[in-house]
UniProtKB/TrEMBL annotation:
GO molecular function: ATP binding; ATP hydrolysis activity
Record PANTHER family: ABC TRANSPORTER I FAMILY MEMBER 6, CHLOROPLASTIC
Superkingdom of the organism of origin: Bacteria
Protein name as catalogued: FeS assembly ATPase SufC
InterPro entries to which the protein is assigned, alphabetical: AAA+_ATPase, ABC_transporter-like_ATP-bd, ABC_transporter-like_CS, FeS-cluster_ATPase_SufC, P-loop_NTPase
CDD domains referenced in this protein's UniProt entry, alphabetically: ABC_FeS_Assembly
Pfam families: ABC_tran
Keywords of this entry: ATP-binding, Nucleotide-binding
Species per Swiss-Prot/TrEMBL record: Longilinea arvoryzae
Residue ranges constituting the ABC transporter domain according to the UniProt record: 4-250
Family designation: Belongs to the ABC transporter superfamily. Ycf16 family.
């Protein structure tokens, strides 16, 4: 099992500390959600975990299994099984979904075996067809240029298809619900649920509870002022939806005063 373990993580951007001693463990086989108001460091955490160069880790460690990933490049993190679904996926004109996915799958295979010559085309086509059918996607989608002219829902579905093909150990979904209508949200959530299992840990980062109506989390965390300040089961998300975050702030202030 390759759990993701974050210990005393401090992260700065342009000299300003955003993440301030965060501790969190995401076991494979579990779905965890992080909620919190704007500006608390949720997306900073996601990009830091994936190795964005603008985010400076000043203290702490992040373990994937027994490996401290902080010294690894973003592509190396991806090859060992960490996946990030972006809030705003970029388009890549001239590169089809199928060609992009085949290159990504081959990179993962070669990370495990440098002598691997890549997935045979017939095998890849069969696998892609199976995953697209599993996610209820039109096969013609594979021939389109990645994210070019895609709707918000199509971009997010393309991210979930990447996750299905790459079979990561840990998937980080950074505000996947952003910009989606109800139908697109349901379709994307069904895709995530279809991939749930003992070999996949999922971290869902969101402002709102609505995606958690479809992707039921095992644990919900509240992030505020750069750290995890509250954790609970799925009922915590419902409580936040009804009462907001003010009660969390008051509890922190009272605790600090005490």
């Amino acid at each position: 099992m390759s759990d993701l373990t974050i210990r005393n993580l401090h992260v700065s951007i342009a000299g300003k500390e955003i993440v301030k001693g965060l501790n969190l463990t995401i076991p494979q086989g579990e779905v965890h959600a992080i909620m919190g108001p704007n500006g608390t460091g949720k997306s900073t955490l996601a990009y830091t975990l994936m190795g964005h160069p603008s985010y400076e880790v000043t203290e702490g460690e992040v373990l994937f299994g027994d490996t401290n990933i902080l010294g690894l490049s973003p592509d190396a993190r991806s090859r060992i099984g960490i996946f990030l679904a972006f809030q705003y996926p970029v388009s890549i004109p001239g590169v089809t979904v199928a060609n992009f996915l085949r290159s990504a799958v081959n990179a993962r295979r070669r990370a495990e075996n440098p002598e691997d010559k890549g997935i045979p085309i017939p095998e890849f086509r069969k696998l892609l067809k199976e995953k697209m059918a599993y996610l209820k996607m039109d096969p013609a989608f594979a021939g389109r240029y990645l994210n070019e002219g895609f709707s918000g829902g199509e971009k997010k579905r393309a991210e979930i298809l990447q996750m299905a093909m790459l079979k990561p150990g840990i998937a980080i979904l950074d505000e996947t619900d952003s910009g989606l209508d109800i139908d697109a949200l349901r379709i994307v959530s069904e895709g995530v649920n279809a991939l749930r299992g003992p070999d996949l840990g999922v971290l869902v980062i969101t402002h709102y509870q609505r995606i958690l109506n479809y992707i039921k989390p095992d644990v919900v965390h509240v992030m505020m002022d750069g750290r995890i300040v509250e954790s609970g089961d799925a009922e915590l998300a419902l409580h936040l939806e009804e009462h907001g975050y003010e009660w969390v702030r008051e509890r922190l202030e009272n605790g600090a005063a005490a």
